[in-house]
Amino acid sequence: KPLPKKGGQYLHVWKDWFNKFSVEEQTFLKLLAGKIWDNGENELLLDDVLQDENLKPYFTSDLLNAPYARMKNLGWITRYVKDMNSYVAFTVEGSLIYLFARKLVDESNIFNLESIQKILSEGTKLQKSGIEEYLCEKAMIGDLQLTTELIDAGEEYLDYCVRPLLYQLKTVGVEETLNKVLEQPTENDWKVLLKLNEKMDELQSKDLQEKFSNSLLELVNLKDFSINTSLLISILPLANAAFKNEFISKIENRNLSNEELEELAFYFTFNGAPEKAVNIYENLLVYDEISNPIKLNKIATGFPARPLLSLRKLTFPLISPVGN
After folding, report:
1. 294 φ/ψ sector (left φ>0, alpha ψ -120 to 50, else beta)
2. Residues near 109 by Cβ (< 8 Å), separated by ≥ 6?
3. What percent of the chain has pLDDT over 70?
């Protein structure tokens, strides 16, 4: 399906998939997904389904194109036998998770932060995926309220908030998303933005990532925020030259942890300052620490054009720059 010529340049695949069915078929899919949500696993005993007054008519109908028969023929629903029992399930988990999100959107008036935390702490993997998809659905219509509350509720919830933030970036806009997340900045806000930047890097969304980096640095300057050092280092590669010069100077004047120093060294390595990277490694590492091959590889990465013996403050056997 081609991208829209006007408006938002994105496709909502599962929403388009769901809307192509008749109202009766949509009702059946939502009822079956709701039953699976209560069960927690994508597998229902047919006997249990037939005891459900809402679902039973769909499974006992003998009409040729009845919703259950058609969904099964199209391959979206499956029925199978295991251990002498008949079971019903969705064949494509992505469609089921989307239907979970639809269900939760319909119940938004009784769904709050406390209930989300309870599911993320005690629910099944499938239910947790449903919560994440629900937050994505809300984000795509500009509602980040529950996502921002979940970010501040604890670091253990941050991974569930990354995709909703990414969807909001794409559909609503970078500036509006950052303003909502950083309305009252907390350490968890900076941490989730770092995870978001890493996700964009993984997806190679360079244009979006560049806009995100520059918009965030502009907001930091405007509001005089004290941005997390790891996040700052991670967004600088795609920032404009003025921001790079300004913020690198600020970073070098900070009291950095060893981990942050290594991150800064990697930045220097691939952004035109390998000598600075080597200096950091020389001051940071001692012989006992670099006896680990992983750390040796890190050091070798810092100056690929020179032999490893150029590390003047370290004495150890010659090791090739590729870490062999």
Report:
1. alpha
2. none
3. 85
Q: What is the pLDDT of residue 323?
A: 43
How large is the greatest C-alpha to C-alpha distance in the chain, in angstroms?
Answer: 83
In whole angstroms, give the CA distance from residue 190 to residue 275: 29
- For residues 45 and 147, what is the distance between their CA atoms, to the nearest angstrom? 34
Strand-pair category, 44-45 with 85-90: antiparallel
Element (H, E) at 288: helix 287-290
pLDDT tens figures, 217-243: 999 999 888 888 889 989 998 988 888
Cα 89 to Cα 303: distance, rounded to the nearest angstrom:
55
Q: What's the confidence (pLDDT) of residue 301?
A: 59
Tell me the whole-structure pTM to 2 decimals: 0.82
Q: Which of the four pLDDT bands, split at 50, 70 and 90, describes residue 143?
A: very high
Distance CA 321, CA 10 (A): 43
- 46 near 88, Cβ under 8 Å? yes
Beta-bridged to residue 79, according to DSSP, are 88
Among 241, 123, 230, 139, CA closest to 181: 139
**Residue 85 and residue 97: Cα distance in Å, rounded?**
25
- Strand, helix or coil at 257? coil
**Lookup: tokens for 137:** 């659905």
Which pLDDT belongs to residue 311?
Answer: 44
Would you say 219 and 242 are in contact if contact means Cβ atoms under 8 Å apart?
Answer: no
Phi, psi of 205 (to 5 degrees): -90, 70
- Residue 160: is its pLDDT beyond 50? yes
Strand (E) positions, 65-158?
77-82, 85-90
Whole-angstrom distance, CA of residue 90 vs CA of residue 75: 9
Report the first-to-last Cα separation within the chain, whole angstroms: 48
